[in-house]
Write a structure and sequence with these properties.
Layout lengths: L1 H65 L5 E7 L4 H14 L3 E8 L1 H10 L4 E4 L9 H5 L1 E16 L6 E2 L1 H8 L17 E2 L7 H9 L17 H10 L3 E6 L9 E3 L1 E2 L6 H6 L5 E9 L4 H11 L1 H4 L15 H6 L3
Parallel strand pairs: 1-2, 1-3, 5-9, 6-7
Antiparallel strand pairs: 3-10, 4-7, 4-8, 4-10
């Protein structure tokens, strides 16, 4: 009897030990499983951080690449009237694309058109349409990009005292018929013409819209297509008269602009059509042009840069009134 009782007690004790062992094993497995889950969670977090870092690096790389996808050289030449704008735009553009080098020169519209037609430069800047300076076959190879408008103004020495001229008086002066300022309401002072070469687009535009198509007299001693040099000559000679783009008169009080028929040469008067001496500024490419040329011209005509146009004395083409546009079709 005692043996049976003892056997039962031993059996119960063994069962308890096994139960405890099973419970302990179950707890250990649960802990290990939790640890594995935690490890998986850590791995996932690390992967997420890695992906985030890679994405950030990729974004930085893309940003860097975006500023470096234009490279090499870009050349432009021609209009002195457009020169200040193209120089300023090129400086801004090179900040965006530091691997691109842009060279901009003047020389006159005719010269710029000849060079782009010959492939010597990527862009030919002009105050007039290519057909006015090149033969038909050469002009056909070029693509026109009208980037803005330009207003031309007669300028005199600021001490002269002449602020307005009629169209007839202006024509008489520039054709050499009127030679003294006293004949047009000014002082007894000989008129000194500061003229431009025949290749000048500024000259062609001024001839058409200010001089009614009359050919201006030549003064080879004071002939220049450099607007800065022209302004200096007018400033230093009391009887001098010439003409420049409005862009050269921004913040310039060394010379005096002259009204024509009582209308001041301003952007507002150009837009509303009351001031008639203006034209479109053209940037020509040979065919569609290089990728660099197309990107640069798009930049100049885009919203980002157009805000600077008026501040530099150039006109926004879309602001021209229908009256002004229609008047230039005649």
């Amino acid at each position: 009897m005692k043996n049976k009782t003892f056997s039962k007690i031993v059996s119960l004790m063994l069962a308890g030990v096994l139960a405890v062992g099973v419970s302990a094993c179950g707890s250990t497995a649960s802990t290990d499983s939790s640890a594995d889950a935690s490890a998986d969670s850590t791995t996932t977090t690390d992967a997420s951080a890695t992906d985030s870092t890679d994405a950030s690096a990729s974004s930085d790389s893309a940003s860097t690449d975006a500023g470096a996808d234009l490279s090499g050289n870009l050349t432009a030449a021609g209009s002195s009237a457009l020169l200040p704008l193209v120089k300023d735009a090129s400086e801004e553009f090179m900040k965006k694309y530091p691997n691109l080098a842009i060279t901009v020169n003047g020389g006159g519209s005719g010269e710029g058109l000849k060079q782009v037609a010959a492939g010597s430069v990527d862009i030919g800047n002009s105050d007039v349409f290519a057909e006015e300076k090149l033969d038909a076959d050469a002009a056909k190879t070029l693509v026109d990009h009208e980037v803005c408008t330009i207003t031309m103004a007669p300028v005199v020495n600021k001490d002269l005292g002449v602020t307005n001229l009629t169209t007839d008086q202006l024509v008489s002066i520039f054709t050499g018929k009127t030679t003294n300022w006293k004949d047009v309401g000014g002082p007894d002072e000989q008129i000194m013409l500061v003229t431009r070469p025949s290749s000048s687009g500024t000259r062609a535009l001024f001839k058409q819209w200010a001089l009614n198509g009359e050919e201006e007299a030549s003064n080879q001693a004071l002939e220049t297509d450099d607007s800065g040099t022209l302004l200096q000559n007018v400033e230093q000679n009391k009887g001098a008269i010439g003409y420049v783009a409005l862009s050269y008169l921004v913040n310039n009080d060394a010379v005096a602009a002259v009204s024509i028929d009582g209308v001041e040469p301003t952007l507002e008067n150009t837009y509303n059509g009351t001031y008639k001496v203006w034209g479109y500024e053209h940037m020509y490419t040979n065919g569609e042009g290089s990728d660099n040329a197309k990107a640069f011209i798009d930049y100049m005509m885009g919203d980002e840069y157009s805000a600077k146009l008026e501040g530099m004395g150039y006109g926004v083409s879309s602001k021209m009134s229908q009256e002004a546009v229609d008047a230039h079709k005649q």
